[in-house]
């Protein structure tokens, strides 16, 4: 995968969070737009509202960030304006090139995740933390969950939910909340 596949002029902007803090979005909004448009065509307003809802209002893309991104994605052949809805709102739809790029980006992320596992102990030294046996299991659980077929996702969610509850119980006991 080429580095350019993730780059878009004007895309690496700072985004204001509800708490006033600013953060670089990197390629996340481009990736989310492509993903969201695989579900159904949407307006820019729909994308802003959906992003806000998915992040519980913590991350709300501004119009000044999203609309130039949509224009660049359209010029790049990743999306098209499929219709003009009520009040002359453009309705965006993903193209085959957009689908191909999304698939490559997802595949790249999975491969990068596998490579990053090799550096987990170094990352623990840099950022703190101890991966230990539990961390090893967590990594393996993540890998297995990525490969669970859709028809078994509900069962997998139930199993991981029970595991999480048990871990919370252990944490509670450690802090004296028995």
TrEMBL record:
* Residue ranges annotated for the Transcription regulator PadR N-terminal domain, each copy included: 33-103
Task: Kindly list the residue ranges recorded as spanning the membrane.
Answer: none
UniProt cross-references to Gene3D superfamilies, sorted A to Z: Winged helix-like DNA-binding domain superfamily/Winged helix DNA-binding domain (1.10.10.10)
SUPFAM superfamilies in alphabetical order: Winged helix' DNA-binding domain (SSF46785)
Q: State a single Pfam family of this protein.
A: PadR
Tell me the protein's name: Transcriptional regulator, PadR-like family
Source organism of the structure: Methanolacinia petrolearia (strain DSM 11571 / OCM 486 / SEBR 4847) (Methanoplanus petrolearius)
């Amino acid at each position: 995968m080429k580095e350019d596949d993730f780059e878009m002029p004007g895309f690496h902007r700072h985004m204001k969070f509800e708490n006033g803090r600013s953060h670089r979005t990197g390629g996340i909004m481009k990736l989310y737009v492509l993903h969201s448009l695989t579900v159904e065509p949407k307006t820019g307003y729909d994308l802003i509202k959906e992003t806000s809802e998915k992040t519980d209002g913590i991350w709300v893309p501004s119009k000044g960030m999203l609309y130039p991104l949509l224009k660049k994605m359209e010029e790049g052949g990743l999306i098209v304006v499929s219709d003009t809805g009520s009040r002359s709102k453009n309705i965006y739809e993903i193209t085959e090139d957009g689908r191909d790029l999304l698939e490559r980006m997802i595949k790249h992320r999975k491969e990068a995740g596998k490579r990053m596992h090799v550096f987990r102990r170094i990352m623990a030294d840099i950022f703190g933390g101890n991966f230990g046996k539990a961390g090893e299991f967590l990594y393996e659980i993540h890998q297995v969950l990525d490969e669970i077929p859709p028809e078994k996702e509900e069962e997998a969610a139930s199993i991981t939910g029970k595991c999480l509850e048990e871990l919370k119980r252990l944490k509670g006991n450690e802090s004296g909340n028995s």
